[in-house]
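Take a look at this chain, tokens included, and explain the fold to me:
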Amino acid sequence: MPAALASPKTLRLQYFNIEGPAEKSRLAMRIAKIPFTDDRVDFAKWPSEIKPTTPYGQLPLMHVDESHTIAQSDAILRYVGGLSKTLYPADVETRTAIDEALSLVDEMNQSWYYALVAGMNPAKLGHDVEKGSEEHGAVTKKMRERWMADEFPRYAGFLTKRVEGGKMLVGDAVTIADCAVIPLLRRFCSGDVDHVDPTCMSQFPEVKAYYDRFHAIPEVAAWYEERAQAQKAA
């Protein structure tokens, strides 16, 4: 049975000044009280200064003791979970249950990805429309409204079965699976995504209650209060 990983002297999580795929590891480290440097990269420096230094031309990156890096957000999350005794426990049965939940979250993310990218980079999905044009707006609206009407209820139903009765995604304890799904739900509730109703979770009270339970965790509440203050000061 694998033991918990040895604690590094320093951790530096490098990503942009948005939540994105780094947020799940930020949450995990805050909940587990693992010290880390939250290195938020300037978008202007990314293409020429930072991107060429990354293994796959992507962020986030985790810098461990400034001696080696971990790429890919899921690998980073599992590494952080391995530093904790509770977020990603060592026993095989529990880890398998967590991995199952993580796969569900990843499937939901991948399903949503196409509707998201339709608004950001339509050519990437093969849509022959000019970005910012009326036709582009129509494609984005159609894809996102269809996803929210068809796919969001389906995935919310899956989540409901896992969290009903006051549970987290895997039993009663918080795990890295919860840290993975919450940033996705936050995006839907943000009011910042065109054609996505920020009250969408009101139709799924068990999921909404779960969302609120997670945000009520003291370390999580403190994290988002700090981020709100940082945004005001920026």
